[in-house]
Write a structure and sequence with these properties.
This protein is of the alpha/beta class and 399 residues long. 41% of the residues lie in helices and 14% in strands.
């Protein structure tokens, strides 16, 4: 009998975390590696959030188990925050706090899916989505939208993907990995379509506060009231408040779904760290001033990165409208000689880039088809300029 179960043995490790870990290991060994892999703000968590956590750590009240679904005061604050930011009305009982956004993703799919149920996954996708679907027994159905359509799927594409096994549409805007942001009209159209097919919609809104230029975040939960209670909203504090290491996310939706997901969580992890929950409470209840400052920096870096990437022959980088990623089409570079190597996939190209100029990027294979690379601009300005400069030097040698 195999030592590892087929279920676990069949999933791939997180490609983004793998790239980030490799970059950090090389740095620790003294190599001047610049990592564009992880979607992690380089800012410190705002002071008022940290101070709330310090006070909580000193309070014996938080040294004990708390409800598996989360601290009641945090669940209430998340409901209020969702109304403030999305216009979507929730009761605190419809919110469950999770150990980071990833647990919210898995819990949502595990709660809804039976073996063989299909989930439509707009592609390029965040690397964790299809693996979570498979772990839950579901079948991810990829619907690809390339740069020529701004990495945004259409209703016609979605309609062509529906079968009698389809149960869920995954919807993400702003998008990781592409930075695409659907317009309010597009969000409403897709929501109405999903309602007409009687589908559930799981919407990941973790980048809601990171939009640029004229792009605006629109929650499908409010844009398409036709969906009724067949919407699950996923979110967290990691990206908005520079709290990736605090591990607090949440899922919100119909009461029966949240109760079932809470039952699952009670057996898997129980409650999220109380100290982190109190920090999250300070975050979602507090002002958005620090968020605005970080967004200004991300916007500056976004413009610099996209301009530099598009100046490289063979690279096509649509301007991202949200999140903090640039998703470049590098298909024109594949099959060309670069310093004696001829990469034919974006994975091979990413390996060559790391080897030759010590810059870590994530290849398109992690998010769907080959031929693309994702680069996060949530790192310092100097590192960004140095890293993109090295990349331009290397790729400029393609023959």
């Amino acid at each position: 009998m195999p030592r590892i179960s087929r279920r676990i043995g069949s999933i791939a490790e997180s490609a983004t975390l793998a790239v980030d870990a490799k970059a950090k290991a090389l740095k620790a060994a003294g190599r001047p590696v610049i990592g564009f892999g992880a979607g992690e703000p380089d800012f410190a968590t705002p002071d008022y959030i940290v101070e709330a956590a310090v006070a909580a750590a000193r309070n014996p009240k938080y040294h004990r188990y708390s409800p598996a679904a989360g601290l009641p005061e945090l669940r209430a604050a998340i409901a209020q925050k969702t109304m403030r930011d999305s216009g979507y009305q929730l009761d605190a009982s419809q919110v469950m706090v999770t150990n980071g956004g990833k647990q919210a993703v898995y819990n949502a799919f595990a709660t809804l899916l039976d073996p063989g149920d299909e989930v439509i996954v707009p592609t390029p996708y965040w690397t964790t989505y299809p693996e979570s679907i498979r772990l839950a027994g579901g079948v991810p159905v990829e619907v690809f939208a390339g740069p020529e359509q701004g990495y945004k799927v259409t209703v016609d594409q979605l309609d062509a993907a529906v079968t009698d096994r389809t149960k869920v549409l995954l919807f993400v805007s702003p998008s990781n990995p592409t930075g695409a942001v659907y317009s309010p009209e597009q969000v409403a159209e897709i929501g109405r379509w999903a309602a007409s097919k009687d589908l559930w919609v799981i919407t990941d809104e973790i980048y809601e506060h990171l939009t640029y230029d004229d792009a605006v975040f629109t929650s499908i939960a409010t844009a398409a009231p036709e969906l009724g209670d067949k919407v699950i909203v996923l979110n967290g504090v990691a990206k908005t408040y520079a709290m990736t290491g605090w591990r607090v996310g949440w899922m919100a939706g119909p009461l029966d779904v949240i109760k079932a997901a809470t039952n699952l969580q009670s057996h898997s992890t129980s409650n999220v760290s109380n100290i982190s929950q109190v920090a999250a409470l300070a975050a979602v209840s507090g002002p958005l001033d620090a968020v605005a400052e970080m967004r200004t920096a991300f916007d500056r870096r976004r413009r610099a990165m996209v301009s530099a990437l598009n100046a490289i022959d063979g690279v096509n980088c649509p301007v991202p409208e949200g999140a903090f990623y640039a998703y470049s089409d590098v298909r024109a570079l594949l099959g060309r000689e670069i310093r004696g190597a001829v990469p034919t996939t974006s994975a091979a190209l990413a390996a060559l880039i790391l080897e030759q100029v010590e810059v870590a990027v994530v290849p398109g294979e992690a998010f769907g088809p080959s031929g693309y690379i994702r680069m996060s601009y949530a790192l310092g300005d100097e590192d960004l300029a140095e890293g993109v400069g090295r990349l331009a030097t290397l790729l400029g040698e393609a023959k």
